[in-house]
Write a sequence for this structure.
């Protein structure tokens, strides 16, 4: 029995397989026996070989795993276990490692005595002698065929799921608690490229949250955070809008960290599935645009009548007020001559006409507030005005925020308001010889509101008129054309009906920039 390095048990008498160690005190007496018993009783196949892998000792677990008895195995080479299916390169690397005195671990294909193959997970530890030279090898292996099969099944399933998810015609993204995408599929990556956006998922989620108002559904495994939310995305660069039907489902994932082994820690993720419905929407849009065109033409006609009658009323009220004062004055003086009577008669007739005119003014259309996408409203008006814009040689810069929260709005009135602002911008630039003709329409979501900017490159409005232009019947067009000066007054009324604000941006140099802000929530009460 030779001296061993401290706490390094090894085979001393290879033939007997008895181990000993250089330890102090009473344990010297019991250790060789304990080592022997421990190796013999260990539930893992153990073999001890010489430096050429000739077997010197095997334990009972080795016999159970390989089917060879100790008597059959001892004296044979470890290569008797080789199923001749492990690549030679693996053995080469094995020997290079252990010859250098380092432990080797890996997997080999073995066969049992009965010929059955199994996958062995093997650890070979060189056992050094007192001079530090390799004297023996300690081999420990176990049959991991079942575990390998399980691993393969898991990997196959994972690959299968991945290929199914990848070939799905919907964009799928898994988001963590910070809205960061941790997993996505091909369609989602394609969407990122198409939309030219870094992370469409978080933009879509922001829009869903803004739309829902009350937040996502409870974060429970399998619970729906939201379902079938239709989200409009306006890609940058003026490309046509795209529509997605989005569903979010909470999924639980067990934490893989060691500290979570007993604690069953888990994290909750949001599985976002976005199905593109732009084509279906395009069909609906076509029909909707046709109806819209007819409706806006009718609305235009009615508002024209309303505007003309209001202007006539406004113009008649002035002289009639003067007449009323004269009649009142004559009455106070007690003048009851035929002229006074005729004036009184004329006043009454005039007031009758005014009443008739008032009654003839068509009522504004009634509509109920619905969740309205301002981008859609602007786009509608833009589409309907395209012909006129082209004819006037106006370049349009369409800069919508890609995904905008909806507002509780009256779409018909909003369209009329936007149309009035665009009409004004168009008219301002459409003067003979005016060179730069650019119309910029931009939207963005602010905290609690949506902002619309309508900017033209026309002559602009003098600062002292910034408030006055919103008064009814005020016009800068010197009695020009069909302008009654009610467009901005109407726009202001529509914005006020929405609880919003409209103003001319005084800080904007050149041209006119109208800023409209509309709240995303209805004011309480
Ligand atoms: P080779 O690898 O070429 O073997 C030819 C002979 O040369 C074998 O006797 C081999 O042991 C010996 N040999 C090869 N290279 C060297 C070297 N650099 N130094 C000394 N001798 C060398 N293989 C298995 O397939 N299954 C096992 O469970 C297994 N357990 C092992 C446990 C221990 C402790 C050790 C040391 C080796 C073990 N091996 C095992 C490796 C085995 O010894 C053979 O290398 C392997 O089986 C390939 O044998 P081979 O006959 O196909 O060819």
């Amino acid at each position: 029995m030779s001296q061993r390095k401290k706490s390094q048990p090894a085979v001393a008498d290879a033939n007997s397989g008895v181990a000993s160690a250089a330890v102090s005190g009473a344990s010297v007496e019991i250790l060789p026996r304990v080592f022997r018993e421990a190796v013999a009783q260990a539930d893992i196949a153990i073999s001890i070989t010489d430096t050429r892998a000739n077997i010197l000792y095997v334990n009972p677990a080795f016999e159970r795993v390989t089917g060879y008895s100790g008597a059959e195995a001892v004296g044979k080479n470890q290569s008797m276990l080789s199923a001749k299916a492990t690549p030679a390169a693996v053995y080469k690397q094995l020997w290079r490692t252990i010859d250098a005195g380092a432990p080797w671990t890996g997997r080999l294909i073995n066969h049992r005595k009965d010929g059955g193959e199994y996958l062995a997970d093997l650890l070979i530890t060189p056992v050094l002698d007192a001079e530090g030279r390799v004297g023996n090898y300690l081999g420990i292996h176990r049959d991991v065929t079942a575990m390998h099969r399980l691993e393969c099944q898991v990997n196959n399933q994972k690959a299968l799921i991945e290929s199914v998810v990848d070939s799905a015609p919907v964009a799928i993204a898994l988001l963590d608690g910070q809205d960061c995408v941790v997993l996505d599929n091909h369609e989602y990556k394609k969407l990122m490229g198409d939309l030219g956006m870094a992370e469409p998922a978080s933009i879509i989620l922001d829009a869903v949250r803004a739309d829902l108002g009350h937040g996502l559904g409870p974060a429970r495994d399998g619970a729906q955070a939201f379902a079938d939310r239709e989200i409009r995305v306006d890609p940058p660069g003026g490309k046509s809008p795209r529509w997605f039907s989005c569903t979010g489902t909470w999924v639980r994932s067990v934490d893989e960290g060691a500290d979570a082994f007993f604690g069953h820690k888990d994290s909750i993720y949001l599985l976002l599935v976005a199905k593109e419905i732009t084509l279906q929407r395009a069909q609906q849009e076509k029909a909707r645009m046709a109806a819209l065109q007819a409706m806006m033409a009718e609305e235009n006609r009615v508002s024209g009548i309303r505007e003309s009658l209001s202007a006539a009323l406004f113009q008649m009220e002035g002289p009639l007020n003067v007449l009323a004062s004269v009649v009142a004055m004559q009455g106070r003086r007690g003048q009851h001559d035929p002229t006074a009577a005729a004036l009184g008669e004329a006043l009454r007739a005039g007031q009758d006409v005014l009443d008739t005119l008032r009654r003839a003014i068509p009522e504004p259309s009634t509509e109920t507030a619905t969740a309205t996408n301002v981008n859609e409203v602007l786009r509608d008006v833009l589409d309907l005005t395209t012909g006129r814009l082209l004819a006037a040689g106006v370049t349009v810069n369409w800069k919508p925020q890609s995904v905008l929260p909806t507002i509780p709005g009256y779409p018909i009135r909003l369209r009329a308001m936007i149309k009035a602002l665009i009409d004004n911008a168009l008219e301002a630039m459409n003067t003979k010889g005016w060179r730069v003709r650019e119309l910029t329409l931009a939207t963005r979501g602010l905290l609690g509101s949506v902002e619309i900017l309508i900017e033209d490159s026309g002559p602009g409005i003098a600062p002292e008129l910034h408030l006055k232009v919103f008064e009814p019947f005020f016009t800068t067009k010197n009695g020009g054309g069909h302008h009654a000066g009610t467009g901005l007054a109407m726009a202001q009324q529509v914005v006020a009906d929405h609880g919003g604000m409209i103003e001319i941006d005084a800080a904007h140099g050149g041209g006119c920039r109208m800023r409209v802000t509309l709240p995303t929530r209805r004011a309480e009460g």
Notes: Confidence is low (pLDDT under 50) at residues 1-26. The pocket of flavin-adenine dinucleotide is lined by residues 47, 49, 52-53, 77-79, 81-82, 86, 91, 95, 99, 108, 110, 120, 122, 124, 137, 139, 141 (CB under 6 Å). The radius of gyration is 44 Å. The chain has four domains: 28-148, 168-256+265-276, 282-363, 367-525.
